[in-house]
Design goal:
Length: about 190
């Protein structure tokens, strides 16, 4: 059962208006479904747009922000704000509070969070579904590279397909809700003897 979704996205707004528009659409969709948004707690970039849109549509938002960032950045009044000691604790708290993960367009912080959630599902450390919201072709180069990674034998095609990709927030959430359980974990083969 999915009650809350962790959304990773940018601390920047990006160069196209579509990025902010998509973050706002995601926020409204979470609120419409009564799903709690769990995110990085900032009021900047697509993160801020997402949180403000969720709250404006009557949704619940839990922000998780490390103390060091909390002291330096602007805040928006959230339903709940958790201040963590550092980045590791932040990600752990975000994961504990969520039933699924979504990445919107973002930068290296977003990728790091997405890849951790996806990689940990791949090895069976959790069973929460992971999705990508594709906006204006932003993720096409990365998806192309991931296909190359699979071709080169470093990623199973089945695990690549396990990442749910959609351009529509409503359909993406529907697909995460109905996602099958994780595949056979990718674990190193045991050596005989
Ligand atoms: P990026 O995708 O590179 O923009 O990174 C997103 C990440 O930026 C977030 O998860 C945070 O770790 C970090 N971050 C940067 N600025 C802020 C801010 N003002 N509030 C919260 N998180 C921030």
């Amino acid at each position: 059962m999915i009650n809350s979704i962790c959304v990773f996205c940018g601390s920047s707004a990006g160069s196209k208006p579509e990025y902010i528009t998509a973050a706002e659409a995601m926020g409204r969709e979470l609120a419409r479904r009564g799903l709690t948004l769990v995110y990085g707690g900032g009021n900047v970039g697509t993160m801020g747009a997402l949180a403000r849109a969720t709250l404006a549509a009557g949704g619940k938002v839990t922000g998780v922000i490390p103390q060091k960032l909390y002291e330096k950045v602007d805040h928006v009044e959230l339903t709940e704000l958790i201040v963590s000691s550092g980045m590791h604790e932040r990600k752990a708290r975000m994961a504990e509070a969520s039933d699924a993960f979504i990445a919107l367009p973002g930068g290296i912080g977003t990728f790091e969070e997405l890849f951790e959630a996806w990689a940990w599902r791949q090895i069976g450390f959790h069973s929460k579904p992971v999705g990508l919201l594709e906006v204006a072709g932003f993720y096409a180069p990365l998806l192309g590279f991931l296909a190359h990674v699979a071709e080169e034998g470093f990623l199973r095609v089945s695990h690549l397909k396990d990442l749910v990709v959609d351009e529509d927030p409503c359909r993406l959430i529907d697909r995460l809700i109905s996602a099958p359980p994780p595949l056979e974990p990718k674990l190193p083969e045991r050596k005989n003897g």
